[in-house]
Amino acid sequence: MRILIYSINYFPELTGIGKYNGEMAEWLANHGHEVVIITAPPYYPWWRVQQPYRSWIYRTELINKVKVHRCPLWVPRRLRGVKRLLHLSSFALTSIPLLLIQLFKRPDIIVVLEPTLFCAPAALGLARLSGARTWLHVQDFEVDAALGLGLVKSKVAGRIAAKIERWLMSYFDRVSTISVRMLERLLTKGVAQEKSVLLPNWVDVQDIFPLPKASIYRAELGIEDDKCVALYSGSMSEKQGLEILLAAARSLQAESRLLFVLCGAGGARQRLMRTGTGLHNVRWLPLQPVEKLNELLNLADVHLLPQRAEVADLVMPSKLLGMLASGRPILATAHPGTQLAKMVSSCGKVVEPGNTQEVAQGLLELLHAPQERKRLGMEARKAAQAWDKSSVLHGFENQLLVMCKQ
C-alpha cells in the first residue's frame, strides 16, 4: 500500500501524538508498505522548533524508510485564543503544496490525525482527486477540549465549530479513536457505527519493563534508597492540571520519605516551577531522551497521572501505557466511570480531580504500604499486555488492507 500520513506532529518529538505517529509509520514501512508523511518541524512539547530544523523552510528527509516532508510552521510562545488558531492554520496552509505533489503519487490511503482537524478539508480534497481512501484518527477531540477548557469563549463559535467537525467527519471512510468512551463519543457526533474503529495507543512491552534493580536515576539524582518517588513524566501543558501535584507536595512536606519528581517540557512548565519555588520535596527534570525512558519510568515508586475534569473522556493520556508497562502503581485524578478511572482502578488509586487532600491521602496510603504497591504494580504490568505494540499495529494494518480492497 501507498500510505500518506498527514499530521502536525511526528518524530523526533518524544511525547504524545508525534511519538505514536513515528512508531506507526516506521512499523508500516518495515512491513513492506510505502509510507510518506506530511508534517511540521518538531516543536512539541517544548513549543519551539528544535535544532537543526527551521520553522520557515520546507524540508524532506528519509527516516527509517519513511519519507518525511516538513513544511513551515508558526509556533507562538503562548498558545491562547487567536494564536492557537493561527498556529494550526499555518500548518494547514503551508502543507497544501506538499499535498498537491502527492496528487501525482496517488496514495492508496490518506490517514489524517486530529489534532488538527484543520487538515481535514485539504486531505479530503486530495482523496477526491486521487481516488484514495480516507482514515481520520482522533487522538484528542480538540473542539470539545477547547470548549471544556474555556479556550473558546463564544457559544456561537463553539456551535459552529462542532457543526463543521461533524460535517468533516462524515466524509471520511473510517474514523478511529483511542478509547471505548471516545468511540462512543464519535457516534454522538454522527459517525456511522460501521465507519467507527477502536484504534488504541500502544506500548512496546519489550522496551518498557520492570527493572530487577534500582533505576540509574536514583544514583544520578542522589535519591536515598528509602525514599518513595512519586513521578510525573510527560507534557506540561494546561490540560494536565499539574498544579494539584504541587499543592499536594506542599501539604506533604513533613513526610521526609516522599519525593516528587516532575519531568517534562511544555508551555506551563515555567509557571509551574515558579509556583513550586521553595518546595524541598520536589525535583524538576527536563524531558529525557527516549533511550532512557525505561530507566526513568522505573524511577517511580508511584506514577502520578493528573487530569482536569473538563477533559475527561475527551482525551486519553498517552503516557498511561508506559506507566503500566513499567510495573508501578498509578495515582490518577478522574471521576468514577470515566475510561481513565476504569483503567487505573485495578492497578492504582483514583481520586477526585482538583481535590488536593485526596491526592495527598492517596499518596500517604501508598507510601506506607510497600506490599500493596508491589501488588498493584504487578497488576499494572499485566494490564499493559493488552496494548502490546505489535498486536495493535497488526490489527491496524489488516483494517487498512481490507479498506483498500473495498
Question: How is this structure best described in words?
Answer:
With 406 residues, the protein is an alpha/beta fold. The chain has 2 domains: 2-202 and 388-405, Rossmann fold (3-Layer(aba) Sandwich), CATH 3.40.50.2000; 216-386, Rossmann fold (3-Layer(aba) Sandwich). It is built from 16 helices and 14 strands. The strands form 2 sheets. The chain has an 8-stranded mixed β-sheet with strand order 3-4-2-1-5-6-7-8, sandwiched between helices. The longest helix is centred in the last third of the chain and has 17 residues, at 389-405. It is globular. The relative contact order is 0.11.
Q: In which range does the helix fraction lie?
A: 25-40%
| Corresponding CATH superfamily of the largest domain | Glycogen Phosphorylase B
- Regarding quaternary structure, what we see is single chain
Instruction: State the end-to-end CA separation.
Output: 14 Å
CATH topology (fold) name of the largest domain: Rossmann fold
Gyration radius, in Å:
21 Å
CATH class value of the largest domain? Alpha Beta
Helix/strand layout:
Blueprint: E1 2-6, H1 16-30, E2 34-39, E3 59-63, E4 66-70, H2 81-94, H3 96-102, E5 109-114, H4 120-130, E6 133-138, H5 142-148, H6 155-169, E7 174-177, H7 180-188, E8 196-198, H8 216-221, E9 228-235, H9 243-251, E10 258-265, H10 269-275, E11 282-285, H11 293-297, E12 302-305, H12 320-325, E13 330-333, H13 339-344, E14 348-351, H14 356-367, H15 370-384, H16 389-405
Parallel strand pairs: 1-2, 1-5, 2-4, 5-6, 6-7, 7-8, 9-10, 9-12, 10-11, 12-13, 13-14
Antiparallel strand pairs: 3-4
